[in-house]
C-alpha cells in the first residue's frame, strides 16, 4: 500500500489523500519509490479542477518526481538507481509524482543528477529545468551578456525565479517584471538589476514600442508576451514557455518583420534525452544550495491540496517541494 493524491471525477470532481494498493499502479517498465515531488501551476490546476488538464480519471497528479528505482525491466535502469522525471504527460494522462510510488515508462526518466539531493532536484523541478531550457534556446540563438539586458516576466514565480538566478550567474543584466512590489528585494537577491511593474506589459499595447531589452524569458503569454516582443531590440529573441496570463497572443508581425525579433517556443514536456541530461548537468553547475533554500517552501503530501489553492491565488513565492512520505 502507498499514499497518493487521487483526482476523481465522480460523483463530483475532487482530490483526496488516498491509500492505494500497488496493483492500481498503471503500466510501465520502471517502478519508482518516490522521495520528493513538487507543486507546479499545472499540478494546482489538476488538483483544483480549475482547468481541464487531467485527461483520464482517476489520476495521481504531479508532473515532477525524484526517487529510487524499486523494480525495472528497462535496459537503462536497475533497482537502487536514483532517477528523475519532468513532463511526458505525467500528472495529466499518466499517474504522476504526488504519491509514494510511481510506475513509468523508463524512456521518460533520466539518471538523477549527482550534484543534487532528491529534495534539491525537486526544488528545481520543471520550473528550473524550463528556465534552463529557455537560457539554452537563447544562447543557441546567439545571445551573450554583451548584447544587453534580458527581461524576465512572472519574475517571482518558479520559472521566473530560476531564470533570474541562471541569467545573473552567466553574467547577464536582468530586468524582472512582477506584480508584487513587495518582492523587489527578493528578486534583487536572486540577481535582478532592476524591477518593473508587470502592469507596464499586461494591457494591450502598440505593435512596436521603444527598444528596451536584448532578449526575454516569458512565462506569462497573452498581452504580456505581445508587449515583450514589441519592446525587444532589433535581432533580439524571446523565449516563450508559459501562459499564466492566457493562451492567446494578441500581437502583430511588426517586431518580427521590422526588427528581426525571433520568438522561440520552449517545450519542457518532451525534450529528447540528450537535451534533458544536458540541461540538468548545467543546472548542477549553476544552482547553489543557498539559492535553493531562498526560493523553496517544503510541505507534506497531505498539505498539497490547500497549497494548490494558494498557488492559484498567487500567494506562493518561488517553489513548493512536496515530501510525499510525510
Description:
This protein is α/β, with parallel strands linked by helices and 326 residues long. The protein has two domains: 2-112 and 292-323, Quinone Oxidoreductase, Chain A, domain 1, CATH 3.90.180; 126-265, 3-Layer(aba) Sandwich (Rossmann fold), CATH 3.40.50.720. The chain has ten helices and 15 strands. The strands form three sheets. Strands 3, 4, 5, 6, 7, 14 and 15 form a seven-stranded mixed beta sheet that branches. Strands 10-9-8-11-12-13 form a six-stranded parallel beta sheet, with helices on both faces. Helix 2 crosses helix 8 (273-284). The protein is globular, with a radius of gyration of 20 Å. The protein starts with a strand and ends with a strand. The relative contact order is 0.16. One of its GO terms (molecular function) is acryloyl-CoA reductase (NADPH) activity. Residues 14-322 form the Enoyl reductase (ER) domain. This is Acrylyl-CoA reductase AcuI.
Query: What's the total count of β strands?
Result: 15
**Approximate strand percentage:** 25-35%
Describe the main β-sheet briefly: 7 strands, mixed
CATH superfamily of the largest domain: Medium-chain alcohol dehydrogenases, catalytic domain
- Alpha carbon gap, first and last residue: 15 Å
What sort of overall outline do the alpha carbons produce when their principal axes are compared? globular
CATH class of the largest domain: Alpha Beta
Helix content: 25-40%
Model regions low in confidence, pLDDT < 50 over at least 5 residues: none
CATH architecture of the largest domain: Alpha-Beta Complex
CATH topology of the largest domain: Quinone Oxidoreductase, Chain A, domain 1
Rg computed from alpha carbons, rounded to a whole number of angstroms: 20 Å
User: What is the H/E string?
Assistant: EEEHEEEEHEHEHEHEHEHEHHEHE
Which structural class is indicated by helix and strand composition?
alpha/beta
GO molecular function: acryloyl-CoA reductase (NADPH) activity
EC number: 1.3.1.84
Protein name: Acrylyl-CoA reductase AcuI
Pfam families: ADH_N (PF08240), ADH_zinc_N (PF00107)
